[in-house]
Specification:
With about 425 residues, this protein is α/β, with parallel strands linked by helices. It has twelve helices and 20 strands. The strands form five sheets. The chain has a nine-stranded mixed beta sheet, with helices on both faces. Helix 2 crosses helix 3, helix 5 crosses helix 6 and helix 8 packs parallel to helix 9. The protein is globular and about 70 Å long. Bound molecules: 5'-O-[hydroxy(phenylacetyl)phosphoryl]adenosine. 5'-O-[hydroxy(phenylacetyl)phosphoryl]adenosine binds next to helix 6, strand 7, strand 8 and strand 12.
């Protein structure tokens, strides 16, 4: 495993040489094998041989989610169908799912990047890892599973849901690390409380959370409630699944496994490439993917990149924590709002549980935002006056920090829906 670890500390000039060579190969392969890319490059007047340096990638056209949909299911394959050994798909809220394919080598690379993710969090072959991401078409379960096995951990393939059983397994098997969505882990914390289980009395020390945006405040909440270290893992099915990037012990950005996935930040409006430290839309290009390599895939996730050396010593570029997607933005009476901003405000107030929902309605062309917030059990049993004070405090802080007058509705513990996969925090009734 030491050889894998070394890849995170490679000299940047050597890394860039490898990236350029791999990028050229990928461009040539898609141009020769995928009619969609042949047409798209020709229309843009570019050829794979135009890539002389990494910055030349900006001359090439983007790939969008719609392109995958238009070529459903296998139109973008760059290898013979017989070489595909795994097919995943992301659920997608409308229409057909987005299909992603893997050759045997792709699966090996996927396991490698997940293995590096878990190593980055401090795991070794001595760990027992419970995978609480869903198994199936979703990439979370099998992705984490293969990575943990590759590291030599003992894997408990619990899958999503079944909270009480998950807790039993953590306790009885001496599980040292869990992989699941942050919202599912919050649910586990709550169930553990009800069952009188204190995570500090178990062997659990690490959580690898991702698949949805979660704030720094949420990380602090999880760590203070359980005593574990909470790691952020990022990825998307179109690129591989989990394991595209992960945070190290410094928690100051997620290291991108850029020997396999080449990141760029662009202005979502103009498509221009932005410089280090500048915020914009994250775009990835595959460097080694065989089955379904994508060129300049637009993720819609908002982030920034920094090439400064991390205090941990790893040389891999860091992307800032993804707290929002460009298509997550709500515009309420002209004010732009992201659910993560509300989460940050709520979790800075005591007496508030990490369960909330934003309901947006429109009456006579006027947008209204209602924030439903659960109070903690102690607060719930307190005097009415205190509840009123809490409501006013939330309302004032939301107004101060986000600039919006929202109706705050405090609800009893357990009133807001719980999730064992990705959470759904926004109900926008204006679209109906
Ligand atoms: O969610 C893959 C994954 C599984 C990642 C398990 C991490 C852990 P999709 O279902 O295709 O794939 O959703 C991808 O989820 O574009 C982001 O918007 C969001 N996302 C994933 N990880 C994070 C994260 C999986 N750590 C979409 N922080 C991405 C914020 C995340 N958002």
């Amino acid at each position: 495993m030491v050889d894998l670890l070394l890849k995170d500390y490679v000299d940047r000039r050597a890394l860039e040489r490898i990236q350029l060579e791999r990028l050229r190969n990928t461009l040539e392969r898609v141009y020769a094998n995928v009619p969609f890319y042949k047409k798209s490059f020709d229309e843009h007047g570019v050829k794979p041989s135009d890539l002389k340096c990494l910055a030349d990638l900006s001359k090439f056209p983007f790939t969008m989610k719609q392109d995958l949909r238009d070529n459903y299911p296998f139109g973008l394959l760059a290898c013979p169908k017989k070489d595909v050994v795994r097919i995943h798909a992301s659920s997608g809220t409308t229409g057909k799912p987005t299909v992603v394919c893997y050759t045997r080598t792709d699966l090996e690379i996927w396991s490698e990047t997940l293995c590096r993710t878990l190593q980055m969090g401090g795991l070794t072959e001595n760990d027992i890892v419970q995978v609480g991401y869903g198994y199936g078409l979703f990439t979370g379960g099998l992705g984490a599973h293969y990575g943990a096995e590759r590291l030599g951990c003992s894997v408990v393939p619990a899958g999503g849901g079944n909270t009480e059983k998950q807790l039993m397994l953590i306790r009885d098997f001496g599980v040292t690390a869990v992989c699941c969505t942050p919202s599912f882990f919050i649910h586990m914390i709550e169930e553990a409380d009800k069952l009188g289980i204190d995570f500090r009395d178990t062997k659990l020390r690490h959580g690898f959370f991702g698949a949805e945006p979660w704030t720094v405040q949420m990380r602090e909440y999880i760590e203070s409630r359980t005593g574990i270290q909470a790691h952020d893992i990022f990825g998307l099915s179109e690129i591989m699944g989990p394991g595209v990037s992960a945070d190290c012990e410094c928690h100051c950005g997620l290291h991108v496994f850029e020997d396999h996935y080449y990141p760029e930040i662009i202005d979502p409006e103009t498509g221009e490439v932005k410089g280090p430290g500048e915020e914009g839309e994250l775009v990835f290009t595959h460097l080694t993917k065989e089955a379904l390599p994508l060129i300049r895939y637009r993720t819609r996730d908002i982030s920034s990149l920094t090439y400064e050396k991390c205090a941990c010593g790893r040389t891999l570029v860091r992307m800032s924590k993804v707290s929002r997607r460009s298509d997550d933005m709500l515009i309420i009476r002209g004010v732009n709002l992201f659910p993560g901003q509300v989460e940050s405000v709520l979790l800075s107030i005591s007496g508030v549980a990490p369960h909330y929902q934003l309901v947006v309605t429109r009456t006579k062309a006027m947008d209204e935002l209602e924030i439903k917030v659960e109070v903690t059990p102690d607060m719930f049993s307190d005097a009415v006056g205190q509840i009123e004070q809490l409501r006013n405090l939330i309302s004032t802080k939301v107004k101060q920090m986000i600039g919006i007058n929202a109706k705050i509705t405090l609800v009893e513990p357990g009133a807001i829906e719980r999730f064992d996969g990705k959470s759904k925090r926004v109900i926008d009734l204006r679209k109906k």
